[in-house]
Specification:
The protein has 291 residues and is mainly α. It is built from 13 helices and no strands. Helix 7 (134-153) crosses helix 8 (160-184). The model has no long low-confidence stretch (mean pLDDT 87).
Amino acid sequence: MVRSLASAMRIPQWVKNGLLVVAPGASGTLFHRSVLANTIVAFGAFCLVASAVYIFNDVRDVQLDRQHPTKRFRAIAAGDLSTPRALVAAATLLVLGLLLPLFLSQPGGFYLILGLYVAETMAYNLWLKNAVIIELGLVASGFFLRSYGGAVASHIPVSTWFLVVVTFGALFLVVGKRSAELRHVGTTNRLVLQDYTAEFLHSALTLSATVVVTAYCLWAIDTSSTGLSSIKHQIIPVRLSTVPVVLAILFIMRGAESSDGESPEDLLLRNRTVQVLALVWAGLIVGGTYA
């Protein structure tokens, strides 16, 4: 039962909550005691709440998941975790996730972020999952709220470039996933894919990638107090960080539009080249921000 519950919680998906580290990391304050503590609390809260939502969604979609080539192996769809126990687990995780931010100093702003995440995710699961275009925005907003939540938890001011990169970066990941799904599993198990064409998703992927690359480069060369090339930082490694960003985006685009339909999540979790690029980017940012 413990193994089935852990599977239903989709613990590997917690890697998405690493976005909470981006704003504190880029600001150069991540390792300040209070900021690090706040970031850990925010990360834990998002992990618990997200797992609760995942379980609720699996309960609701159990019949559809049983027809999916891979989702049929999920704990609830496979019958390893009963529906009543799954709902109790989801409720418990949600309560714990909503209690955890009480450890933050002035948690009101973070509660707003977390509340928006729950509301949007539930709206997506219950009503808007098959609303063409709208569903892309809702899923992307989950990534955005995670990224912005890291700043809100520690009351860190963020630049316009940060918001643009995060917004279109989230859209890029979601469109890449849809493109991969359309090529790999078709429209049977995700009805909204019937309203998309490969050409449209290619255009949307190109659009979002273009904005991400442009905004990140501008953020990297920005010398203002909220720019990555702030006077407080080492300029050379920060500006060199644009190279792994561009290469990683190209790899993700190639994977999403390949015949195998590799989603961004699969690439981030399994592709060694993309993982190395992510580590190089992180190393350059850490070196430029904290050296």
